[in-house]
Write a structure and sequence with these properties.
Length: 309
C-alpha cells in the first residue's frame, strides 16, 4: 500500500482567482470551499471589526482591500452582502468602472435572481445567483456543512452549466430556480429556517420557566423526530392537541402562556390556526371537534381547562 501523501490543494494550479465583497458569515466560507477545490482567494473586503476577524480566520493571508480592488484582483467575485444592500452595490461598482468584461460576478442573496446584476452584465460581467440553503455560523464548520447543501441557482441559460459546476465544486447540489420564483423560494426558506429558530428559542425559554434544567436536551430528540417525520410525511406527521381537536388543552395552553409569557401568545395562536387548517384539510382533525377548537383560537380564551397531555 502506498504511503505517499495526497497533494496539498494549495499546490495545485489555481483555475480562478476569487474575491469576496462582504466578509459576513457566508462569503469567507464559500471562498474557503472554493479554495479546497483548487481556486485561489486573492482579496476580501470587510467593514466591521467582526467581519475583518472572520476574514482573517477563514482566509488567512488573504489581503483586506476596498471592494473596487477586490474586483480588480479577482476573476470570480462573491458579492455576499445583505439583500437590501446588493442592488446599490452592483450599480455603484458598475458606474465606477470596477466591473471587468468576462468577470464572473456571483451574489448569494436568496431574494434576488440574476437580474439584480444587470448593471454589471451591461459592463460585460457574467452574472450568477448562487444561494446556499444553509444557515451559517461564520466558522470553519460552515465549509463542512456545504457538503450536500442545496443551492438555489439562477443565471442566464448560457451560464447555467458554469453556475452548476461552481456549486458542485463547493460540495453543493444545484437546484435551478426561475428568476420570477426567487422571492417565493426565499420566503419558503425563511418560513422554515428562520421561524424555526424563533419557535425553538421560545420553547426553551418556556421549559426553563417550567423548571426544566436542560431544555436543549429535552427538545433535541423530540424536535429531531418531528423534523424527520415532517420531511418524510408532510402533513401526515401532524400530532398534538391541535391536530387531535383537544380544545380544552389548547385553552389551558393559552391561559398559561398569558400568565407566564404573554409575548408568545400571538405566535402560538397563529401557528395553532395554521396547524388546524392543515389538519382539517388532510382529514386529521375531525370536523365535529374542530368547532370548539377554532372557537378557542378565534377568541384566544384563557378560561378553559384541559388535560395538557
Amino acid at each position: 500500500m502506498s504511503t505517499s501523501q495526497q497533494p496539498d490543494p494549495r499546490d495545485r494550479p489555481a483555475r480562478l482567482t476569487v474575491g469576496v465583497v462582504g466578509a459576513g458569515r457566508v462569503g469567507p466560507a464559500l471562498a474557503a470551499s472554493l479554495q479546497l477545490a483548487g481556486h485561489r482567494p486573492v482579496a476580501v473586503s470587510g467593514v466591521s471589526d467582526a467581519s475583518r476577524r472572520r476574514a482573517a480566520e477563514m482566509l488567512p493571508d488573504v489581503p483586506l482591500v476596498p471592494p473596487a480592488e477586490v474586483l480588480e484582483r479577482a476573476d470570480l467575485v462573491l458579492l455576499t452582502v445583505p439583500d437590501d444592500t446588493l442592488p446599490g452595490l452592483v450599480e455603484g461598482l458598475a458606474e465606477t468602472g470596477a466591473v471587468r468584461p468576462g468577470q464572473l460576478l456571483v451574489h448569494t442573496s436568496g431574494r434576488y435572481g440574476a437580474k439584480v446584476l444587470d448593471p454589471a452584465l451591461r459592463a460585460g460581467a457574467l452574472p450568477l445567483a448562487l444561494h446556499p440553503a444553509m444557515t451559517f455560523t461564520g466558522t470553519h464548520v460552515d465549509v463542512q456543512r456545504l457538503a450536500g447543501c442545496s443551492f438555489g441557482v439562477t443565471a442566464p441559460e448560457e451560464l447555467r452549466l458554469a453556475a452548476e459546476a461552481l456549486v458542485i465544486e463547493m460540495g453543493g447540489e444545484p437546484e435551478w430556480i426561475a428568476e420570477e420564483m426567487r422571492p417565493l423560494y426565499h420566503a419558503a426558506l425563511a418560513l422554515g429556517a428562520n421561524h424555526l429558530v424563533t419557535l425553538v428559542a421560545q420553547a426553551m425559554e418556556l421549559l426553563r420557566e417550567a423548571g426544566v434544567a436542560a431544555p436543549d436536551r429535552m427538545l433535541g430528540p423530540l424536535l429531531g423526530a418531528a423534523l424527520d417525520n415532517a420531511l418524510r410525511s408532510g402533513d401526515a406527521a401532524l400530532t398534538g392537541p391541535v391536530a387531535r381537536g383537544d380544545a380544552g388543552t389548547v385553552a389551558a395552553h393559552v391561559a398559561e402562556l398569558r400568565k407566564h409569557a404573554p409575548q408568545t401568545v400571538a405566535g402560538y395562536l397563529a401557528m395553532a390556526r395554521a396547524t388546524a387548517d392543515r389538519a382539517l384539510a388532510h382529514g386529521l382533525l375531525k370536523p365535529e371537534l374542530a368547532e370548539d377548537l377554532l372557537g378557542v383560537l378565534a377568541t384566544g380564551t384563557n378560561g378553559a381547562e384541559g388535560d395538557a397531555r
